[in-house]
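1st attempt posting a full record on here, be nice pls
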Amino acid sequence: MSRVSILQIVSFFIYLFYQVLILQNVVLFHTAFCFLYVAYLLLLPVETNPLILMAIGFVMGFTVDLFYESMGLHAFACVLVMYVRNYWLNNLTPQGGYDSSAIPSLALNGLQWFMVYMTPMLFLHHAVLFYMEAGGFGMFWFTLWKTITSTFFTLFVILIAQFLFPSGRGR
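the predicted structure (as tokens):
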């Protein structure tokens, strides 16, 4: 097992434990939730096999579901985000392409690229999660507001982590 693989496994548990032990109880104004664990998924290497990405997304989401008692909502949202991730990265490919071990991080790609990459992916995750949690579109505007505020709150926390730990993984 390579050093990079061991670091990714350790990062998986750090993000997971931080989410379920600390961030589960952090809510701003009863609408903005922080789901930092999604950053782990979005910061996996660019060339990772899509099936492995979806499997990692399922494991991470299912584990969060166990602690949040949310019956598969996080697992579904994570698998969907991991499915869409490669298509989104292909649309954002820089002119020379990505390196084989490139990580879609702030340090390697710059703030503008990072924001364009992260914001729609976080919005997709949060929208799927909150609309499924609401059971449909009955509370459309409140759920949309919750999605927007949570997206920006999560993005803000991810940016802080990226600036504090510029090594590329946000560890």
